[in-house]
User: Which sequence fits this backbone?
């Protein structure tokens, strides 16, 4: 980290902006971490695509199938490969709080810019707010690095805008990835955007959120490197147009991506999002690789359908 704890919110306000992507983690045929492939992907995403930041070892990155040392190594690789061209945010999510804190301290020491921690799954608990507040408060007090909250239905619940607003007062809470319906994140934006960056992973809603909610952070999923190539950076282009207030041009560019979005979504088997996205990466010339159990690989038929849609979607390679 490159700031003091007391400056975390101000640092994030100035720097936690633009398009951030959730990195997929490439594994070799033997299911080992493909370090060279990951480095090359990071170089391409940051240098060729101009992505502002990388979300490392999240759910897209298959953290649930990785050991703690592998997760630490993945962060180190990301910081090294980004080379100052982009920032990094390390997912420290885990059900074991000791693991969360171990990963958070490693991220802080290894040069990450921020961490992100998923709301925990809770057992035999029906009133969540105070439990979740104390959970994040404990993490906040244990590290200096800026922390993003992360609420998603996968936890079995979602944090309310009111709870998130309370958490926004913690010294080093700087953002939230809020995977909830738009009325909920719009409410939180009104409540807490003076203290934290509010964002969600939906690329479909990103343009409206810039124009209507004055958002400046996309945090984050895989579209930034699945919908773009070195010569076709339309997500980047419509984002920049919207940032300077040219709504008409931003909408024109965004709407031109509809065939690409459609091809990506309609060929994705519901139970195989990781394998499908990795295969799409390979069609783009990136390093995809295998998925680890319990995830499933694509069949040959699913690959053929994806390849045909990719070749017809109009994305300029």
Assistant:
């Amino acid at each position: 980290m490159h700031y003091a704890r007391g400056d975390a919110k101000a640092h994030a306000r100035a720097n936690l902006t633009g398009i951030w992507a959730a990195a997929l983690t490439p594994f070799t045929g033997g299911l080992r971490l493909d370090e060279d492939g990951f480095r090359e992907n990071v170089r391409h995403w940051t240098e060729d695509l101009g992505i502002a930041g990388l979300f490392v070892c999240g759910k897209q990155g298959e953290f649930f199938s990785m050991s703690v040392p592998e997760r630490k190594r993945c962060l180190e690789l990301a910081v090294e490969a980004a080379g100052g061209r982009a920032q990094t945010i390390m997912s420290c999510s885990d059900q074991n709080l000791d693991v969360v804190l171990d990963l958070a301290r490693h991220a802080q020491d290894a040069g990450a810019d921020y961490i992100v921690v998923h709301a925990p799954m809770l057992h035999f608990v029906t009133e969540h707010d105070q439990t979740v507040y104390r959970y994040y408060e404990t993490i906040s007090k244990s590290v200096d690095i800026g922390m993003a909250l992360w609420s998603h239905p996968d936890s079995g619940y979602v944090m309310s805008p009111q709870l998130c607003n309370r958490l926004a007062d913690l010294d080093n809470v700087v953002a939230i990835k809020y995977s909830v319906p738009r009325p909920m994140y719009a409410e939180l934006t009104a409540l807490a955007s003076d203290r934290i960056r509010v964002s969600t992973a939906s690329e479909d809603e990103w343009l409206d959120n810039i124009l209507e909610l004055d958002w400046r952070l996309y945090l984050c999923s895989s579209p930034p490197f699945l919908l773009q190539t070195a010569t076709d950076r339309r997500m980047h282009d419509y984002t920049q147009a919207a940032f300077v207030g040219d709504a008409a041009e931003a909408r024109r560019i965004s709407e031109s991506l509809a065939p690409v979005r459609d091809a990506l979504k309609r060929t994705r088997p519901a139970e195989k999002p990781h394998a499908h996205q990795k295969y799409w990466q390979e069609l783009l010339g990136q390093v995809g690789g295998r998925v680890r159990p319990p995830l499933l690989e694509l069949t040959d038929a699913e690959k053929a359908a994806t390849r045909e849609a990719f070749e017809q979607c109009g994305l300029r390679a």
